[in-house]
Amino acid sequence: MNKKIETKKPQEKTASIAKRKISAWEKLNIRLSAKEKVLFIKYLHVLLKSGLSLNDALDVLLSQSTGPLKKILERLVREVESGRTLASGLSYYPHIFSDVFVNLVQAGENSGTLEKNLEYLAEQTQKQYDLRQSIKGSMMYPIIVLVGGLGVSIFIIVFIFPSIISLFETLNVDLPFATRMLLFIANTITGRPLEIVLGIILVIILFIIAAKIRPTRYILDSILLKMPVVGTIICDSILSNVFRLLGTLLQSGMPLKQSIYITESTVSSLPFRKMFDDLDAKVTQGGELVTVLRNYDGIVPIMAIRLIHVGTQTGELENMLLYLGDFYGKEVDELSKRISIIIEPVLIIAMGVMVGFLAFAVISPIYQVITNVS
């Protein structure tokens, strides 16, 4: 299916709905938690799916809501009743509803696929919420173990170890390598704490500055995408999001060029943004997506490129993109679960090695003293 191609000047690449403005006080006080946002989208989708009109669905939600969500719904009801769109009302709250969110709602209203687009938004928002909760849950125990282990280790190195070493020095004990290494760490921490703290702060500042410089950030993003396991998760996660979003926008009747532009705005990884810039230029010239994607087979798998080519030839590009989005989403879920299972025992082993090193560094000179006395 050949999509209509729009040719827009760069300055015309803006959202179809201008952002409405609310006061700074409203922006500060009207906020939704991730859970509230998920429930709002889900309930609105269910009510529309049941056959209610948009006005009636908003009225039902308004009667059941309290707090900030009620204020948002009051404005949405006023906007819709005055003949404007739901997207117009949502654009008042860019700190809650992103440009992509508003554009998807607008595309759904224009094409009569609002219910389907809300279903997609509900699924994506739920996935993001579940991912954050999963990361918090899976990392809580390892973080507690890591912080506790490091705290105990630093306490031993700084406060207990030096007094033991002074005893060994009075006995003229020849300290083993592990003990001398630990002594060096202890002397460094206790002797130059200010320099260590300033050094850490300086490294962090330099990293932040480097990450803001585009060429350096491009290199950092490229390295991150090529890292084992972590790079695979990041790459597959981006592919899942952009394929699903692009497919949903095309299904809503949005032109391919505008769909590419909106999808690109959701991506922060510079190698992917460069790919979308090239896609945008190629589509403007009347070319096909796969012509550009073949140049990015380092971040887009060959299988995905071939399926997109098939979808383009058969007129099923939207459905193929949605399929690929679901496929890579499942890949990310499975890999994340495997990592969360592995990370706990690996961390415990690492802590065991650290404790073992500390114990060896302290016990080995004591054993040497006992041997000499014997």
TrEMBL record:
Topology versus the membrane: Multi-pass membrane protein
Cited InterPro entries: GspF/PilC (IPR003004), T2SS_GspF_dom (IPR018076), T2SS_GspF_sf (IPR042094)
Keyword list, A-Z: Cell membrane, Membrane, Transmembrane, Transmembrane helix
Domain Type II secretion system protein GspF as annotated: residue spans: 40-162, 243-365
Transmembrane segments annotated in the record for this chain: 139-161, 181-209, 346-370
Location of this chain's protein in the cell: Cell membrane
Highest taxon, organism lineage: Bacteria
GO CC term, one of those recorded: plasma membrane
One Pfam family cited in the UniProt record for this chain: T2SSF
Family membership: Belongs to the GSP F family.
Protein name per its UniProtKB record: Type II secretion system F domain protein
